[in-house]
């Protein structure tokens, strides 16, 4: 039977061009590295510190103790308590286990929450630049994906004016990410409360992706969920992927009003059927005990940010203008003064032995930029900076 005679759902068309295309440079680099080329990969942001052995031991003993059966769809009771306790400490309000839903990572939490909030005919506002998977996670629901342009002039911090100017009558959700990937910007208290007030006044959810909460360099972390007046219209999502350098464990959560969690549970269960009890045990341990992983990463990344700023600062004739990140594991560099777009520059840079993400993978507003990952050792990052500068100088003749 020919494939065009079999039915295929519209979702596959909506998402068809949103998967691999954004990662083309990365995959290209991987192929060239496999063929023996010397290419320093600064594309993806895999933490370069190990997952704490203590957590691996907890997961191991838990498996050996037989915690390998089906889990509760909402999440294992001890983990629900641990997440609730984290947010009780953070918000100063009593957050209950029934306000928590466990997911295999922030990505799944965002997908299931959006699926539970919107559908065809609705719109989701997404500040641009945005994390590479946001467009597909919104479009998967059938809702419109509406980028809201942020500006490099204020370090890509979303403002309420930018939301007001967007004028999208069917907007039902703001997908807000602070600390932000790819720009590293961190919203301050005033910005968050103005943005949240706008959402509340327009009966919109704030779906808050807080995966970089523990990787901020100087500024305080602020979430609409922590402000009692916005807690009813905010869902906070996060995971141990970054905070505990454990992305492969796929362990995250959503926290919000109990009624929403109750309504979202059957949605989550129909796709996920709970998560692994031994991973739940390990995650509860991670949340209930002090841990230095995030602090170690933060120190490394700040050091590497300084390293890159020094390297680019010493060569202003290159035309490369780095944007100092306030958080996270990436740095944006404006390449427009070289006369090339971010994607043209990224493509040329492969021949100079460095793979970076073109800013356009993160939305139209980042088109002039390349994104560098800070997750390689200092020596490689230093060599990469030299190669990037060489590429820029060569372009300029
Ligand atoms: C902004 C942002 N959100 C979500 C994720 C995915 O996180 P998780 O591993 O918890 O699914 C990432 C991973 O890089 C990210 O940068």
CATH superfamily of the largest domain: Type I PLP-dependent aspartate aminotransferase-like (Major domain)
- Proportion in β-strands: 5-15%
The assigned CATH architecture of the largest domain is: 3-Layer(aba) Sandwich
Give the C-alpha Rg: 21 Å
Order the strands across the largest sheet as they lie in space. Answer: 2-8-7-6-5-3-4
End-to-end Cα distance, whole Å, is: 57 Å
Bound molecules: pyridoxal-5'-phosphate
Determine the structural class based on helices, strands and strand pairing: alpha/beta
Stretches with pLDDT under 50, minimum 5 residues:
none
Number of helices: 13
Order of helices and strands: HHEHHEHEHEHEHEEEHHHEEHEEH
Helical content (DSSP H or I, runs of 4+)? 25-40%
| C-alpha geometry | globular
State the domain count: 2
Give the C-level CATH assignment of the largest domain: Alpha Beta
| Average of per-residue pLDDT values | 96
Biggest β-sheet strands, sense, barrel = 7 strands, mixed
Instruction: Tally the beta strands.
Output: 12
CATH fold-level name of the largest domain: Aspartate Aminotransferase, domain 2
